[in-house]
Specification:
The structure is a single chain. This protein has about 250 residues and is α+β, with helices and mostly antiparallel strands. It has a single domain, classed as Sandwich (Jelly Rolls). About 15% of the residues lie in helices and about 40% in strands. The chain is globular. It starts with 5 loop residues before the first helix and ends with a helix. About 30% of the residues are buried.
Length: about 250
Amino acid sequence: MIKLKPVVFACVMAGLTLPAHALELIQNGGFEVQGADSYDISGWQTAEQGISGSVLAQSGTLSEVTGNATVGAYQGNYYGMLDNYGLSANALFQTFATGAVSSASLTFQLFVNNQHDSASVDAAGLDYTVDATDNPNQHVRVDVLKSGSDPFSTSSADVLQTLYLGGANGPLTTNQYLSYTFDISSILASGGSYTLRFATVANQNALQLGVDNVSINAVAAVPEADTYAMLLAGLGLTACVRRRQLAK
């Protein structure tokens, strides 16, 4: 009879009982890495369109372009800022990859300061060039996109899930973060490459979006019972081969 050596047996059993473990999929979610105001944000990408707007990691309580008051960072010293003066669109996004997961949740804190009297979501999506009189388009959105999508796309072919759409805290509200949590397990279940996007569009007046403490916490999928069965069958086959070799 062929026996597995104790060390090998222990390793096999450890593999069979390995618990699921949590993974953090977002880099620099607190925007603290640089330790200084920066338009080149570690771990993140930015895109800007239009007459006047900016995307950066910043400290302090005044928005970079418009000088409007903000509450500052939710945690630490820095936060992500999308600052539109008007007739502009901005995007802050990060592409991440993961294997199959059994669960995943997205959390962040967000504020919106809207200098227009309301949020307006037009069918044009993130296009700021639509006629401002007939098509007011002033809002923020948070989406999970297919990796490689245009950062301003709102096409159903690119958007896997829209997590937030509208005006958040309401018109003319400042200095107020709200906390958000979303279950994105079904999107990430099979694994792959994805893009998390925060975006703004404004064709009425100034608009600021501040975001901080962004995290995607995922739990790696535990192998199914048939996977264990295949592993054990493989071990049995190895043992049979070894037995025949010793019998020669």
